[in-house]
């Protein structure tokens, strides 16, 4: 398993992987725009306050973690958070690499969101195993 920062040459494979993971998620009802994803990932790959990581196994992308770092609204303290994190394999390695990046850019807090239902106890075990603690939940309402 190789985990690395994504490069522009990865965009086509990242779009395919993101689409596949999106179609299996609770968010599949949200329209998926490959062109928009490609444009956003191109921008994110080039900016130092974004992190685009991929897990690769035997030459195939098997996981992704898109994250960012920002200041808290009420403090100059930096936090790192994921924008998208999904893996068919390599999830632990992706999380570890994101933590390392967050430390390198000066983040003091790592915040990971879970916005897909199902297998909550497995997700809790995964994040606990990697040193994170549950600090709340996510609630949503689809607005018409």
Plain-language structure description:
This protein has helices spanning about 10-25, 35-45, 90-105, 120-130, and strands at about 1-5, 50-55, 60-70, 80-85, 110. The protein has about 140 residues and is α+β, with helices and mostly antiparallel strands. It has one domain (about 1-130): Gcn5-related N-acetyltransferase (GNAT) (Aminopeptidase), CATH 3.40.630.30. Strands 1-2-3-4-5 form a five-stranded mixed sheet, sandwiched between helices. A hairpin with a 6-residue loop joins β3 (about 60-70) and β4 (about 80-85). α1 crosses α2 (about 35-45). The protein is globular, with a radius of gyration of 15 Å.
List the helices and strands and how they pair.
Layout: E1 2-5, H1 11-23, H2 34-46, E2 50-57, E3 60-71, E4 78-87, H3 91-104, E5 109-111, H4 120-129
Parallel strand pairs: 4-5
Antiparallel strand pairs: 1-2, 2-3, 3-4
Helix pairs in contact: 1-2
For the biggest sheet, the summary is: 5 strands, mixed
Question: What is the global morphology?
Answer: globular
**CATH fold call:** Aminopeptidase
Cα(first) to Cα(last) distance is 42 Å
Query: Radius of gyration, rounded?
Result: 15 Å
What's the CATH C level? Alpha Beta
Quick recap of the structure?
With 144 residues, the protein is α+β, with helices and mostly antiparallel strands. Helix content is 35%, strand content 26%.
């Amino acid at each position: 398993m190789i985990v690395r920062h994504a490069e522009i040459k990865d965009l086509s494979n990242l779009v395919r992987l993101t689409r596949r993971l999106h179609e299996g998620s609770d968010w599949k009802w949200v329209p998926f725009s490959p062109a928009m994803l490609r444009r956003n990932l191109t921008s994110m790959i080039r900016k130092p306050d974004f992190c685009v990581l991929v897990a690769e196994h035997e030459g195939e992308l098997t996981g992704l973690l898109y994250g960012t770092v920002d200041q808290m609204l009420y403090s100059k303290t930096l936090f790192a958070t994921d924008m998208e994190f999904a893996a068919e394999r390599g999830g632990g390695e992706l999380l570890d690499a994101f933590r390392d990046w967050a430390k390198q850019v000066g983040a003091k807090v790592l915040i990971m969101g879970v916005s897909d239902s199902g297998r909550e106890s497995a997700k809790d075990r995964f994040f606990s195993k990697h040193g994170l603690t549950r600090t709340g939940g996510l609630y949503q309402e689809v607005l018409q």
